[in-house]
Every structure is written in C-alpha cells, then in structure tokens.
Amino acid sequence: MELIIIPHETDHKLPKAAGNGVANRSMESKSLAQRFLASIGAHEYFSPEMWRASLTELVATACLMFTLTTSIISCLDSHGVDPKLLVPFAVFIIAFLFLMVTVPLSGGHMSPVFTFIAALKGIITPARASIYILMQCVGSILGFLTIKTVMDHNAAQKYNLGGCTTYGVGTQTALVLEFVCTFVVLFVGVTVAFDKKRCKELGLTTVCLVVAGAMALAVFVSITVTGKSGYASVGLNPARCLGPALLQGGILWDGHWVFWVGSILACSVYYCFSLTLPKESLTLVDGE
C-alpha cells in the first residue's frame, strides 16, 4: 500500500506569508529610496543640460575670479584715486557684465551663496546645487591658479593673492560683517531676482543692475565701516575665498571658516525671513 502524506493547510501558508512580508519590506525600502532620490532631483545627475549649465558655472567662475581679483588688486595698487571708491565700482561693473551673460545660461550663480539660497527656495534641486557648488570651487581654483602664474610674486605676497582674510578686524567682527553684508545682498538682490513677476516687469538688464549694485554696496560698506587697512572686505562668495587659501595658504586659512559659516547663516536667516514677506505687492489704484 502506498502511503500518501497530505500536508496540513498551514504548512504552505506560513512560508507564503513570510515571503510576502519580505517582499513588502523590500518594496517599501525601494519606495523610500525612490522618493528620496526624487526629492533631491537625482535624475539631474544624468541630464546633459545640467552638466552643460555646470560647465558654464565653472568657466564663468574662473573668468570672474581672474578679472575681478586682478581689477581689485590694480585698484588697491593705484595711488591716484581712493581705492574705497574704485573697488566697489569695479565689483559693480564686472558683476553686472558676468550676470548679463550667465543668467540666461545657468542662472548666473557663480557663488555658493546664490546656489544655496536657490536650493532653499526650491528654484533648483539639491542635486544641481551640489554640482554647481563643486564646479564653482573648481572654477575658483583654476582662476586663482592663472592669477598666481602671471602675477608678480611680490604682489601676490603683498595682497595675499587677492584672498579673503580676517586680518585687522578679528574673526568675530569679520563673521558679523559677512553675515550682515551677505544678508543685504540677498534681501536687495535675490528678493527681486527670484520674483518671476517683477523680473518680467523689470527685465534682465535691470535685475542684473540691482544684484550687481547690492554686491557693490556690501563691499563698500565692509571696507569703510571698519577703517582697517588690512581687512580686504567681505567675501560674499566662499568659493572665491577657497581658491587663494588652497594655493597661497598662510594667513588665508586663519578664520577661513568665517566666510562659509557667515554665508550659510545669512542664507538660512534670509530664507526664514522670506517666508514672512507679503505674497502680493502693493499697487497704486487711482492714485491711492
């Protein structure tokens, strides 16, 4: 007689239920991972358009560092006019020209400050922001490497390769100035630049003039309020401070963190403040 063993009903249900649990957990983990990647815009890592824009940021930052730094050093080395007037004017002209060229191409950031606040405001994804900041730092290094190659060694030593220092004011004062001046640039420039309606009304030229004027104003305030000849004004661009620090070293590393922390704090405070701004602007109706 052949013995037939019929398995109990639960003998095959338990493994099936266990398998479903593993599958469900696997699907949930995949779903969480997919949501995280989507939230940071990871798909942009594979976007040719994003990499073209990032390359634009690299080249623009390198050219900006070269032209801006050499112009400022020339202003400081001149003996005809007060550098306190020449330096902000040079910042205004050069920043305006570069903004006009790069805003339609990549957004015209050329600074981790503008990239970070754009990511906080949702203008760009965190993925794009990470690549932009990396490219800006590389561009700064390339720009200052070019300056170091062509600049006279004595001039490079005298002006610390045009880098950012806290010499003469101390880290505490430098941090306050970096925070306040960066906040002013964000409040005056970014408030207009990130408003689509006002940008359309004012036009690209006017918006670039406003942003460049805010940067020049911040530089002017920072070099006049302290009255210290050794202080080279606020950075307003941590990438600009990183290039000379890596290539020249020395006192450029003293308080280097100020230019990053001050900028990040200013962006964070401005973002929180921007949430309280009126959603609709006031307009004149029948003269009222």
CATH architecture: Up-down Bundle
Strand content: under 5%
Strand-pairing-aware structural class: mainly alpha
Say how many strands there are. 0
The total tally of domains equals 1
| Fraction of residues in helix | over 70%
* CATH third-tier fold name: Glycerol uptake facilitator protein
Poorly predicted runs of 5 or more residues: 1-14
Number of helices: 11
CATH superfamily: Glycerol uptake facilitator protein
Overall 3D form? globular
Question: Roughly what is the average pLDDT, rounded to an integer?
Answer: 86
H and E string: HHHHHHHHHHH
- If you compute it from the alpha carbons, what radius of gyration comes out, rounded to the nearest whole angstrom? 26 Å
Structure description:
The chain has 288 residues and is mainly α. The protein has a single domain (49-274), classed as Glycerol uptake facilitator protein, CATH 1.20.1080.10. It is 72% helix and 0% strand. The chain contains eleven helices and no strands. Helix 5 crosses helix 10. The relative contact order is 0.12. Belongs to the MIP/aquaporin (TC 1.A.8) family. Keywords: Membrane, Transmembrane, Transmembrane helix, Transport. It holds the Pfam family MIP.
